[in-house]
Amino acid sequence: MNMNQVEYKIVIGDTQFLVVEGLKSLLANDERLSVAGIVTTKDELLNFLARKPIQLLIIDLASLDFDKSDDLQFIKLQFPQLSILILTNSISKDEFTRLTKVGIKNILYKTAERDEILSAIDSAIKGKKFYSGEVLDLIIELGENKSVMEVSVQLTISEIEIVRLIAGGMTTKEIAKKKCISFHTVNTHRKNIFRKLGVSNASELIIHAIKSGWIDNIEYYI
To answer: What is the domain range of residue 18?
Structure first.
């Protein structure tokens, strides 16, 4: 590892052997990341966090028998610098709402592919939001029940159209072909959109687009 490179220490909280071993194997390929420990109970986790500085907690709340809101709120108050990535097999609207209220902004389904897992970990470390596609479905449904959409940044008509195409799963090359413009032009639009909205990945972009009312009940890809 580069002497100037920061090492991020990670704790995994899960009782499923295959999940834990899979994460350990995946994280071992990134020299920035170090698995500092594996915990299988709530008490083990609290004791571990009290002993060592940890940057990221990857946890399946159900497997550690957590009270999703109260226990997480306690951990976030006790360890404010700790980033948390929630692993789950499923999540309800009520559960999502409770997690959001205590400041959780990284939720990943256990069915996620390798690249999605890495993106979620990277986003969590950087303090950015990341939700699996299944969680975005919930956000869309919740958003549909709001009478007023949140609009914080004004995009051009062309940029909003590109946001919709990105959310629909189209690549930069496909968008260029559909709109009869160059690859470079689409790429420039994409960079400008990300900069204006202050987002760093497609997941964050779609969340913002849903809240702003730019997309509604469409197929999207993360």
So the answer is: 8-143
